[in-house]
């Protein structure tokens, strides 16, 4: 698995992972809009097949970062992906 920066083109895959993780998952349009907003950034974890297994979406403001959401696919949990994403955002 590898951690990479996300782009708005990743929004559909990120929305799929978010839907697996939350009852009211965010849509691809919502995620793309957030990624396009000033100061927003995201990191995601891709598996060997290039599928998104986890991501963190954040926004930078002044000298701080606000974690907006973090999602890990259910079958990829308990492997340290969430911790790696939080560290990448910090």
Please, could you describe this protein's structure?
This protein is α+β, with helices and mostly antiparallel strands. It contains three helices and four strands. It has a four-stranded antiparallel sheet with strand order 1-2-3-4, with helices on both faces. The longest helix has 11 residues, at 11-21. The chain is globular and about 35 Å long.
At a glance:
The protein is an alpha+beta fold. It contains 3 helices and 4 strands. Helix content is 32%, strand content 33%.
Instruction: Name the beta content range.
Output: 25-35%
Shape: globular
Structural class: alpha+beta
Q: Strand order, biggest sheet?
A: 1-2-3-4
Q: Give the beta-strand count.
A: 4
Report the major sheet.
Answer: 4 strands, antiparallel
Provide the helix percentage: 25-40%
Q: Show unreliable segments.
A: none
Cα(first) to Cα(last) distance is 20 Å
Number of helices: 3
Average pLDDT score: 92
Round the Cα radius of gyration to an integer and report it. 12 Å
Order of helices and strands: EHHEEEH
């Amino acid at each position: 698995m590898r951690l990479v920066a996300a782009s708005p083109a990743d929004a559909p895959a990120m929305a799929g992972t978010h839907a697996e993780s939350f009852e009211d998952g965010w849509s691809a349009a919502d995620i793309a809009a957030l990624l396009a907003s000033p100061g927003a950034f995201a990191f995601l974890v891709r598996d060997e097949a290039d599928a998104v297994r986890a991501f963190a979406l954040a926004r930078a403001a002044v000298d701080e970062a606000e974690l907006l959401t973090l999602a890990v696919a259910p079958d990829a949990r308990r492997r340290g992906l969430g911790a790696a994403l939080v560290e990448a955002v910090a």
